[in-house]
Hints:
heterodimer; A: about 250 residues; mainly alpha; globular; B: about 325 residues; Alpha-Beta Plaits; six-stranded mixed beta sheet; four-stranded antiparallel beta sheet; 14 strands; about 35% helix; binds adenosine-5'-diphosphate; binds magnesium ion
Amino acid sequence: MRNMTGLVHNEWLKLTKKKSFWVSPGLLAALTVLVTVMLYRFSANVAGIESGIAYAAGMLGASGTGQFVTVLSVVATAGIVAQEYAQGTIKFLLIRSRSRGEILVSKYLAVVLYILMMTVISFAVLFIAGGVTFGFGGTGEQWIEALKQGAYGFIYSLVYASLAFMVGVLTRSSGVSIGAGLIGTMFGAIVIQKDFYKYVLLPNADLSVYGTSGPPLPGMTVGFSLTVSAVYVALFLLAGYTVFRRRDIA
Amino acid sequence: MNLAQPNHPDSSQQERLEEPVLTLDQVTKRIGKKTIVDGLSFEVRRGEIVGLLGPNGAGKTTAIRMITGLITINEGDVRIAGHSIRNAFKQAIVHVGGIIENPEFYPYMSGFDNLKQAARMTDTVTDARIMEVIALLGLQEALHKKVKSYSLGMRQRLGIAQALLDRPKLLILDEPTNGLDPAGIREMRDYLKRISQSEGIAVLVSSHLLSEVEQMCTRVVVIQNGKWVTEHRIGDRKNATSMPELRLRVDRPSVAARVLKKLEHVQVTEVKEETSELACRVADADMPMLIDALREEKIAVYRITETKKSLEDEFLQWTGGNQIA
Ligand SMILES: Nc1ncnc2c1ncn2[C@@H]1O[C@H](COP(=O)(O)OP(=O)(O)O)[C@@H](O)[C@H]1O
Ligand SMILES: [Mg+2]
């Protein structure tokens, strides 16, 4: 496990040493502040918001800033494998005494860390901007709800980042990979009223709907959606691993 | 195989005792219907610098990709320090440092950060070792500059540095002088010799340039169309040509030829009236006699040069006269 820390550290540095690294978190913070200001000035729905933390709870989901986190995380994820091919550094990476499985896992863990970072930033900025706007008070229940919505937002982002990760491994192209991740998020809100659709990833990725509009299809629950999402993520990773493990690096 | 007489008796002793660092055993790679490497076998031992020589497209890079586990092997196996790259990848590859095709790095990181990347993938490389390798390759000044600002020569050096970090038993360099200027090539040659001596490691260098292999390597394995063609120890040739061929420029070549033909230990091989030249074979010991004979006939000698039969001539013989690219 000590070994894995070195690999994940490497992957994290590959992300953060880029000059462009701060663009995404910066954009996320700026958009979050902007949205807060706009809502406060132009929306009638904000009247009932009691505190910054309650505001954060309402905004962290896929219909709020969770969407920004997802899009920006998909963009970061798409490059994590594809760029090694584009730079030729894939050879530098794979002629070490590490299995390809370890390399891939370390990359995926870096993706998880990245999404975690983005979720935390989004949480913090929402809390602060919301606090300034609506007051910093807030009840314990509101905090728990905010943490739950943060977790849902994290899961939503992770699901589509996992899809982008797999497509990145399979195609070695960051463009295709971003496309796949974003198309997933775009069609996530569309629900086809057929029973089989319960088992499709799209209606399951966003757990926050259970608290707002209710189950997308009859018979779906949070636990059900969590299971379906987990199975898809596992399949994405398995497919990526199976291909990556045997592929000729030409 | 022409492994006739090793130069140093003690190195042959060593060869019998130690197993090779690298063994290719009937290695074959097919892509689609094409057989790119076909039943290739050779060995590299400690302290050797072996040149893998062949024209462009011969399969050198493909062979090296198989050796380093970047591509799968269809038939045969590669063993590094006794471990199969197919069945024990991690144990085998831990002994290898290499550059395959171009030295590739993360361009937005410094040379040092790139070496740290390589170091974190090992269990053993310390910062002290990194500094040692940096000093060995003279990279101190460029250390904290971003790799994207490096010249190709500097990237090559950084490439060798990352390859040496984990004290490999085998260093593999694929066309290491490609794109380097003559000074860079000379530098590279000196590094390799120094490294193979100081660290006692085995080196495999691929090249399509004969002259390069000739100057850099202790042995050459020639491949063509993915197949083993021949192997030579560089230096063998010297023993073989105990009567070097000389080219003389004189004022009257045919008269000179008549004089020399009378001498016992001289073979006249060519007379060229138009260029006032003649060629002959003679041992060093008989040279004074040859000079005296020419002087007696008052033949003016303008120039004497040795026509070295280069590896290139031999190479053309081995590959049936095919031009090397
Ligand atoms: N991935 C591949 N698919 C098809 N053909 C390939 C592939 N890689 C190499 N080749 C072919 O195999 C031959 C050997 O290539 P290579 O090993 O790069 O030669 P070298 O390094 O000696 O110049 C060439 O004819 C090349 O076109
Ligand atoms: Mg090549």
